[in-house]
Amino acid sequence: MIKTFRGLLGDGGQDRIRLGTKQGKIGYRIVKFELIAYKPVNVNNASVAMIWGIEQTTVPTDTPIIDFTDPNLLAAGLLTDNASLSYPASTIIVFDQEMFNQDIYITHTDQEGTASLNYYIELEAVSLSDTGAEYTTIKNLRANQPQGD
């Protein structure tokens, strides 16, 4: 089964996508992540949107950092658009083998100004066995722990 979500984020915004269930027996993986400007070909923007496994305590409004070694990062997208382009340019990277059964969060930063950004996400829902649900929940919880010695 495919579940879809869409929304609009302002510069420095964060949305929560509620997925968690009491027993965690439904797992999800991202199959599609698309971005489009709120006012296409009208304002200059260089938007970065990221999907996270945990809530972000801060969302930058100038220059975000994309770190593929961060275990909480599930997807990243870049959209550049301005009045001189006849079409927007975008790059989307989804870690499609990452399975999660908890809420996810999407953040947006516009490096050129304060433009808003639309997003569309498709998630594949997968039934998990008791063991699979336990494993996925523990993996998600461990990924949320601070990295240390």
How would you describe this structure in keywords?
5-stranded antiparallel sheet, 1 helix, mainly beta, 149 residues
Q: What do these coordinates show?
A:
The structure is a single chain. The chain has one helix and eight strands; from the N terminus they run ββββββββα. The protein has 149 residues and is mainly beta. The chain has a domain at 1-49 and 96-103 and 113-127. Strands 2-7-4-5-6 form a five-stranded antiparallel β-sheet, with no helix packed on it. Strands 1-8-3 form a three-stranded antiparallel β-sheet, with no helix packed on it.
Sheet of most strands: 5 strands, antiparallel
Class from secondary-structure proportions: mainly beta
Computed Rg: 16 Å
Percentage of residues assigned to helices = under 10%
Chain-averaged pLDDT = 83
Identify the overall geometry: elongated
What's the total helix number? 1
Separation of the first and last Cα atoms = 40 Å
Helix-strand string: EEEEEEEEH
Give the low-confidence spans: none
* DSSP summary, beta strand count: 8
The fraction of residues assigned to DSSP E strands is 35-45%
Spatially, the strands of the biggest sheet line up as 2-7-4-5-6
Q: What's this entry about, in short?
A:
With 149 residues, this protein is mainly beta. The protein has one helix at 130-143, and strands at 2-9, 14-17, 26-37, 45-52, 73-81, 89-94, 104-110, 117-127.
